[in-house]
Amino acid sequence: MSRFALCLALLYTLFDIFLTQRFSLPAVAAGWLALWAGGRWVWQLFLLFRLGEWLFVAYFGRLPGVVDLKLFWLHPFETFEALGGMADFFTLPLAGSGMLALLGLGLPRRKVRPLPLAASALVLALSFKATAPGGSLAKLEAEAPPAPARPAEVSVVLVVGESLGFDADIARRFEALGIEARPIYAAGTATDTSLSLLLNGALDPRNLTPDSRAHLFALARANGYATRFCTAQPDRWLKHLRPYLGEPFAEEFRTGVGENDAWDMALTACLKLPAGRPAFVVLQQIGEHAPYTYYPPPHADGPAANYRRSLDYTFRFYRKIVDWAKRQKRPVIVLGTADHGELRGQGGRWGHNAFDPAVMRVPFWFVSNLQKGRPEMKKVLCHHDLYLFAARLMGYAAAFPSEKIIVWGTMLSGEDGARVISVR
Ligand SMILES: [Zn+2]
Predict the structure, then answer these.
(1) Which residues, 6+ apart, have CB-to-CB distance to 180 below 8 Å?
(2) Each residue of 385-404: pLDDT tens digit?
(3) Per-residue pLDDT reduced to its tens digit, 251-289
(4) Can you list the positions of beta strands (E) in 85-224?
(5) CA 136 to centroid of ligand 1, rounded, Å
(6) Residue ranges of domains in the chain, CATH in brackets
(7) What is the Å distance from ligand 1's center to 314 Cα?
(8) Which of 373, 307, 315, 367 is nearest to 336 (CA)?
């Protein structure tokens, strides 16, 4: 490598660090290898690729991944239109890469070395994949989970309802059961996003990784908890959700326990605590899933009446859980919520998948056999708070509450966006 190429490599490294605000070994190594490979065109081609990434970083503040590429090709015209109006963002990356390209004209003309060229391309390709969801960027969070600060003491049961919002009727039902309940924000407007984000403690579905060590089951296991997941929902409904349910960390993992007309009441069998150590149990209901007929017949005419009857059934199920919790001799805390709410004919609309308060607001309820109250539960305002709260109950010193309240849409790819409710 000539002295000139060395200077250029150093300049490139400094610019990359300056622009991305981080030292990326693959990005730097690929650049040095490209310069070592020699030839102007190799360098210009390399810069063109990096320019794409630098433009992305300038705008989004992070490196692009595979999903971003896919999104780009789905909406190329909108992307260019939107970006055309915000040219300021791109001055710096364009100026930097332009300068490096011009300087590249001073590189000596000689034959390209195939080996460093292949190595550069390989490093680039691998580093690009690493920034995709499931890759190393997302894993950064997951690979450094908090270490337990206290030994496991209290068993924790997390009950996740289905399509259960929070309104006056539902508030009355909780009151009648003597359960403390209030509305909080769901993490998403559909099951896949909401439950994945809640269980993994992620604030962005694009950061989800199937084997995240920040998953509540992973945290529980790491602190000596017995772990169990039971869902009344059938396998075919869990297609997209399943990778994020923490299966590798759940000692028991049961799906479809509500099938064959057993519905949610079948989940009570999953409450039995194993002997000798505290347990972390997650129960996912089939609950008020459309068409709102997952309860013993007779079924009513029409969705509104069926939803009410389904609620009656859900609250009979909650009664069983309350009675169970009070009977336990060992300390137990039951945390309840739902994945998302449901439109029940408001303005002629049904279902969820909408950024509507009826969908975004869900109950947070709490039952325990402990004498001591838990004043910090008042700070739980959203699913991410609930994740942090559960982590704390299981012995982790998680910073609490979360910095912002954010509700994602329906798609795990994050393509239909999010609503930031508040930043604390
Ligand atoms: Zn759902």
Answers:
(1) 174, 365, 366, 367
(2) 999 999 999 999 878 888 88
(3) 999 999 988 888 999 999 999 999 999 999 999 999 999
(4) 155-161, 180-185
(5) 29
(6) 3-132 (no CATH), 143-423 (3.40.720.10)
(7) 14
(8) 367
